[in-house]
Design brief:
The chain is α/β, with parallel strands linked by helices and 137 residues long. It has five helices and five strands; from the N terminus they run αβαββαβαβα. Helices cover 34% and strands 15% of the residues. It has a five-stranded parallel beta sheet with strand order 2-1-3-4-5, with helices on both faces. The two termini are 26 Å apart.
Length: 137
């Protein structure tokens, strides 16, 4: 299996890229993986910005319907949508001026990975920050 995002890239995104994370697919549904991962990111000092069509407030943070609607800079875009939709989100992240894109476990789009890297962003694909961040210790 190909790894998209070596350990050095994972570390850089989690520790050096910035602390504002837009989590695409995050709603107030506590049973969803996005909710649990967002909670872990918050515990590690990240500001989590929910991006979901419902634009709900989640974990105390105002939500937005799209990346383009967020009125402040975002460092990392964490993508919890399925692979068929993820490439468009990656393109939106580039357009929004994000520094990095993170596709969650099971989210793979090789063409989007190539486009995002070519645009100069760091990217990790098919990994989970909630699993990786405690390993940094």
């Amino acid at each position: 299996m190909t790894s998209y995002g070596d350990d050095a890239t994972v570390r850089e995104i989690l520790t050096g890229t910035g602390d504002t994370w837009a989590v695409v697919g995050l709603s107030d549904n506590t049973a969803r993986a996005a909710y649990g991962v967002a909670g872990v990111l918050q515990r590690y000092g990240k500001r989590v910005v929910p991006v979901h069509p419902k634009a709900e407030t989640v974990l105390g943070e105002q939500g937005y319907a799209s990346l383009a609607e967020i009125p402040f800079p975002v460092d990392v875009v964490d993508v919890f949508v399925n692979s068929a939709l993820a490439g468009e989100v990656a393109d939106q992240a580039v357009a929004a001026g994000a520094k990095a894109v993170w596709f969650q476990l099971g989210v793979v789009d090789e063409a989007a990975y190539a486009r995002t890297r070519t645009a100069g962003l760091s990217m990790v694909m098919d990994r989970c920050p909630a699993i990786e961040i405690p390993r940094l210790g």
